[in-house]
């Protein structure tokens, strides 16, 4: 049986059992067992991956996942009835956050969303399923220092790449589709096709997609054969997290929950919030109890745990679960009136996300030679009706297969600007001359561990940014016109560090996000380099032939260093929805929260597994990395308990 046929069989079995998850999901604590071996806090991308693997490896052990959201259908980013712009009316539930104003970025705020549903953000994201370069993950190991080098749990590229391969079933495109769009790939970057988390390439592209593809080549960016195998500099084709037959969204709520049911030892409690973990006899006597709250009636109860608790509530909620548990910066906990269980200043610190401004332009030459374009979804009823019909065919066809697009450039700083050496010299100087601490949040500037960790990160990032094979800039695209086209610039490796703190006035409510974007001035220098580089796009023969006319920042603004800096500070998107790093995997003396085994420093029977544990933001959208982290974490946990004979 070929991979497409096998995938189709799997999907058919899944949809025919669509009622099973709702029947199995528990909604009251009276439905729970007296005790559990493992409790997973959060049914998101990494959490469900861990729960799936634990219930599979230990059929005699019971696993409970507690999820704030519910089981919902999760349409793709671009599924009927939407056009290219309008959000899906039936999109799964999300958390929506606005950050505090960012004084270094013209007091603008960051807007970020996260999944509030079984499947987490994998059920609501843009479905862009890429991985970082090998150098991004090698940097995780480097910043951990000698302690991490000596650990048997390796988090460099060699240590995590097998789990990227394990985490997904990749389906090659049909030969005619590959030839039509010049898709390239290397199957050695993928695994044995045994995990029902799918990635595939669309059999559709907007007609003008090749315009930018050609223009990028004209400014010296070369196509890459495969961008998921560790080498990523260049023009990349990126698969989407979608089923290869139906083009429906593939997410953790399907592949790591619905598709593995029924399992007698796998319980999911929905519509409940984990308030905190409780150590009645102190953090050295674990595992802790888990205190949870019913969203229906505010009823509080404890869950008894025999083996361990795995917090997987995401980069924005894991810190608040820990902080409500008295695990976090002692000064903050004291100010919030929370008794201190463990003074770990890194909890909720080290907050990072991708950000950046865009360049925009119009075309003065006719665009009538391109069909179809996204505008045809609005203006051409016949085309729209055929697109809807095509999405319901098996295999699916037409524009609704495209999700949000699957092409992007990834460019290193040495290829962006000749001034890259001056920029990295500035970073190394602040890491060694004692000024790094001045760029941290005020309450962390005198905490030796946080300063030491930040200095180590800066030195690692300087090396990363000096590497001509390690991307600093991302620009995704799928279409470019005909009016008000844009090329966003993603700052892939920010130096600024923010915080996530619970709201003392509403401790069970949304956290307070302080992005502190631009607080390290080198970030602005890199933004400027990215914008200057992208403006060169409009000088290429392809773009000139189309009469591309820059609308922002524009010649007048770009001609003044001061004005261009003002443009960057006032017109940047401060979150591309990739928050991370708020419970960092670092030694405690470097401000870390967890070690390479993902155990919380000083807390027995407590681990963290989600995007909060990564110490540095990789040059990638985070979904694929979240699956790989979940897979590797599960392997670590399974091997440890097997070694104990349990």
TrEMBL record:
InterPro entries: FAD/NAD-bd_sf (IPR036188), GMC_OxRdtase (IPR012132), GMC_OxRdtase_N (IPR000172), GMC_OxRtase_C (IPR007867)
Domain Glucose-methanol-choline oxidoreductase N-terminal: 314-328
Any Pfam family the entry gives: GMC_oxred_N
UniProt-annotated catalytic positions: 578 (proton donor), 621 (proton acceptor)
Cofactors: FAD
Xref: Gene3D superfamilies: FAD/NAD(P)-binding domain (3.50.50.60), Glucose Oxidase, domain 3 (3.30.560.10)
Keywords for the protein's UniProt record, in alphabetical order: FAD, Flavoprotein, Signal
Positions contributing to FAD binding: 45-46, 117, 274
PROSITE patterns: GMC_OXRED_2
Signal sequence coordinates: 1-17
GO biological process: secondary metabolite biosynthetic process
GO molecular function: flavin adenine dinucleotide binding; oxidoreductase activity, acting on CH-OH group of donors
Family of this protein: Belongs to the GMC oxidoreductase family.
Record's protein name: GMC oxidoreductase
Organism classification: Eukaryota, Fungi, Dikarya, Ascomycota, Pezizomycotina
């Amino acid at each position: 049986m070929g991979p497409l046929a096998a995938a189709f069989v799997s999907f058919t079995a899944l949809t025919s059992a669509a009622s099973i998850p709702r029947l199995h999901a528990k909604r009251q604590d009276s439905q729970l067992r007296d005790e559990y071996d493992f409790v997973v806090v959060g049914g998101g991308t990494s959490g469900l991956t861990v729960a799936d693997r634990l219930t599979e490896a230990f059929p005699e052990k019971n696993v409970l996942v507690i999820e704030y959201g519910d089981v919902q259908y999760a349409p793709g980013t671009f599924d009927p009835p939407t056009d290219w712009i309008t959000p899906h009316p039936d999109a799964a539930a999300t958390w929506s956050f606005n950050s505090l104003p960012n004084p270094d970025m013209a007091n603008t705020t960051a807007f970020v969303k996260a999944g509030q549903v079984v499947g987490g953000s994998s059920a609501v994201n843009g479905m862009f399923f890429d991985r970082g370069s090998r150098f991004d993950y090698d940097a995780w190991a480097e910043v951990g220092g000698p302690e991490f080098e000596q650990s048997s749990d390796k988090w460099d590229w060699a240590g995590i790449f097998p789990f990227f391969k394990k985490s997904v079933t990749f389906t090659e495109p049909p030969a005619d589709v590959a030839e039509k769009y010049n898709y390239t790939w290397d199957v050695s970057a993928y695994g044995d096709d045994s995990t029902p988390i799918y990635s595939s390439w669309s059999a559709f592209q907007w007609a003008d997609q090749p315009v930018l593809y050609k223009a990028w080549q004209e400014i010296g960016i070369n196509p890459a054969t495969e961008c998921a195998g560790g080498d990523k500099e260049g023009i990349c084709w990126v698969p989407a997290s979608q089923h290869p037959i139906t083009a429906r969204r593939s997410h953790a709520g399907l592949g790591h929950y619905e598709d593995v049911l029924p399992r007698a030892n796998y319980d999911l409690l929905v519509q409940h919030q984990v308030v905190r973990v409780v150590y009645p006899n102190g953090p050295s006597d674990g595992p802790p109890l888990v205190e949870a709250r019913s969203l229906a009636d505010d009823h509080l109860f404890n869950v008894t745990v025999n083996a361990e608790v795995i917090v997987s509530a995401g980069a924005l909620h894991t810190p608040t679960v820990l902080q409500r548990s008295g695990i976090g910066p002692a000064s903050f906990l004291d100010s919030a009136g929370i008794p201190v269980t463990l003074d770990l200043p890194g909890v909720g610190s080290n907050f990072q996300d991708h950000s950046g401004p865009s360049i925009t332009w119009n075309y003065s030459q006719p665009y009538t030679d391109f069909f179809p374009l996204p505008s045809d979804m609005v203006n051409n009823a016949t085309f729209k009706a055929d697109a809807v019909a095509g999405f319901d065919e098996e295999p699916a066809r037409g524009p609704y297969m495209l999700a949000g697009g699957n092409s992007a450039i990834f460019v290193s700083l040495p290829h962006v600007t000749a001034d890259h050496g001056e920029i990295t010299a500035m970073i190394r100087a602040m890491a060694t001359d004692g000024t790094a601490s001045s760029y941290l949040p005020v309450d962390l500037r005198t905490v030796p561990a946080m300063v030491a960790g930040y200095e180590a990160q800066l030195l690692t990032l300087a090396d990363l940014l000096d590497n001509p094979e390690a991307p600093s800039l991302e620009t995704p695209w799928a279409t470019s016109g005909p009016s008000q086209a844009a090329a966003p610039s993603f700052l892939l490796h920010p130096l600024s560090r923010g915080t996530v703190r619970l709201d003392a006035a509403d401790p069970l409510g949304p956290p307070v996000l302080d992005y502190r974007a631009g607080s390290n001035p080198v970030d602005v220098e890199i933004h400027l380099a990215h914008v200057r580089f992208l403006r060169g796009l409009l000088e290429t023969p392809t773009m000139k032939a189309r009469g591309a006319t820059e609308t922002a920042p524009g010649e007048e603004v770009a001609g003044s260093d001061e004005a261009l800096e003002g443009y960057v500070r006032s017109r940047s998107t401060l979150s591309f929805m990739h928050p991370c790093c708020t419970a960092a995997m670092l030694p405690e003396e470097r401000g870390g929260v967890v070690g390479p085994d993902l155990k919380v420093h000083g807390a027995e029977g407590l681990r963290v597994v989600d995007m909060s544990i990564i110490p540095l933001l990789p040059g990638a959208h985070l979904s694929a990395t979240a699956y790989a982290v979940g897979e590797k974490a599960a392997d670590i946990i399974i091997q440890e308990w097997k070694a104990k004979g349990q």
